[in-house]
Amino acid sequence: GESVGLHLPTLSVQEGDNSIINCAYSNSASDYFIWYKQESGKGPQFIIDIRSNMDKRQGQRVTVLLNKTVKHLSLQIAATQPGDSAVYFCAENKGGSYIPTFGRGTSLIVHP
Amino acid sequence: NAGVTQTPKFQVLKTGQSMTLQCAQDMNHEYMSWYRQDPGMGLRLIHYSVGAGITDQGEVPNGYNVSRSTTEDFPLRLLSAAPSQTSVYFCASSYRVWDEQFFGPGTRLTVL
Question: How far is the alpha carbon of B56 from chain A, nearest alpha carbon, in Å?
Answer without folding.
Answer: 9
